[in-house]
Amino acid sequence: METETLISLALYFIAMLGIGVYGYFKSTSDLSDYMLGGRRLGPGVTALSAGASDMSGWMLMGLPGAFFVAGFSEVWIAIGLIIGAYVNYRVVAPRLRTYTYIAKDSITLPDYFENRFADDSRALRLVSAIVIIIFFTLYTAAGVYAGGTLFENAFGLDYQYGLLLTAGVVVAYTLIGGFLAVSMTDFVQGCIMFLALIMVPIAAYLVLSGAGSTSVMADVSAISPAMLNPFYGATFLGVVSLLAWGLGYFGQPHIIVRFMAIKSVRDFKVARRIGMSWMIIALIGAMLTGIFGAAYMANFSAEMGPAAYLTETGELANPETIFIVLSQILFHPFVGGFLLAAILAAIMSTISSQLLVTSSSLTQDFYKAFLRRDASDKELVLAGRASVLLVAIVACALSLNPSQNLLSQVGNAWAGFGAAFGPLIILSLWWKRMTRWGALAGMVVGTFTVLFWIYVPIAGAPLASYLYEMVPGVIAATIAIIVVSRMTEKPTPEINREFDAMEGEVQQNAQ
Is residue 26 part of a domain? Predict the structure, then answer.
């Protein structure tokens, strides 16, 4: 590893820790500050923080790897994500920001569910917190796995050491600075990812076009008929499965918590424009990295440099490392270090957001709700920090011996949240007749449908091998919410008054 590359990475780590220290002094005085930044985020930080925490290591590793192998037949996942993110900004964001404040200033999703439906039984809080903790621990494990893979492939460091180093830095600034530090680091990390996903495909294209090729796209097409044909080998269920990734946005706590923290509902218009522009350009860059990477390998596999990246036959050993390979071969070591920092940025931004949301549930929805109702803010912030450390330790333990590729791990957790919370959140914001028992039924049915689809084999293979588990999970949860809500007692006048207040405020801010 070149000295210049190490210097770039060291500067990146120092900057992240510095932001953590800044967040410590700015917004960790009470639990609301530590977990939600006092609802003071501006539109730019909200947009890039949501985007960076959304697009984890799979943006620079999993997605380019998928396009490297399968070409544009994977484009449907990007289309689904873009549609889902846009609808999330329009349908969920303004109402959730308004309603969580009206509903007794809820600072976590379980908090909101309990307050929205006046659930004295606390069942909604308990079940939703359990779902968050289980799926986010798995999601965080996928993130630290990506960090270990990066250090193993790029630096030659043992996978376990790379995993622990990644988790250690993230835990440090998350534990110290809380939500504000996480959001600010996400903003910086989002900018780094954006630049990297522009630089790498452009550099690869220029090298290919300067190597005497009459047409770079012709070179790509020559690799396989699938590379430029989005319909090659596609089936109806396959396309639906990829598009269905967009359904997950409505139920991702680490993304929608940014909507709860924005300073004003009126800021969402600017946030949406920034966030969607960032996302579309970044996704295009990730796709082209995989496509041009395949062409580069076909033309220059003998010149790929470090043999650690290649098999004995000269092929790329792990397709998910194509961004790493190109960044180290096409750029000066100092710039290459910056590009490797982009991968770390993608990984760390998501891990930190997941750690904080899980910590919020452990602190607000277990510790305070069931163990220490009269706990002081100082005690709760301390409990939140301890929870960050606990979840990180469990995630690292789960990732020591990974058995799935990155995209599969992320996909399972994404589907779990999408089915458990997506229909629940949308209907709770738009349907006045929804009841707490309908909410509970939807959450439970959505969760178990996803788990059944992933783990129960039918004819020797899990159902998820035919249709992405998000689809049946969302459908089943929606049906359960509607049916059970219709079968149970209508919401009280007090609950309806809060709903009407939310409606009125949203309409007023929209004018």
Answer: yes
Q: Beta strands of 138-282 (E only): which ranges?
A: none
d(Cα 270, Cα 336) in Å, to the nearest integer?
A: 33
Q: Please give the Cα distance from 311 to 185 (Å, whole number).
A: 37
The two tokens of residue 147 are 């960090």
Domain count, the chain: 1
The C-alpha angle 343, 344, 350, rounded to 5 degrees, equals 100
AA identity, residue 456: V
Radius of gyration of the chain (CA): 23
* Backbone conformation region of residue 20, classed left if phi is above 0, alpha if psi is from -120 to 50, else beta: alpha
Q: What span, in angstroms and rounded, lies between the C-alpha atoms of 5 and 233?
A: 41
Tens of pLDDT, residues 142-166: 778 878 877 777 777 788 888 888 8
Neighbour-count burial of 422, counting CB atoms closer than 10 A to its CB (0-12 exposed, 13-18 middle, 19+ buried): buried
497: in domain:
no
Tens digit of each residue's pLDDT (9 = 90 or more) over 459-510: 778 888 889 999 999 999 999 999 999 999 999 888 888 888 888 888 887 6
Q: Is residue 414 part of a domain?
A: no
Which alpha helices (DSSP H) does 156-267 contain, by range? 159-209, 216-223, 236-243, 253-261
Total-model pTM: 0.87
Buried/exposed code over 337-373 (b: 16+ C-beta within 10 A; e: otherwise):
bbbbbbbbbbbbbbbbbbbbbbbbbbbbbbbbbeeee
Say which DSSP state 435 is in: -
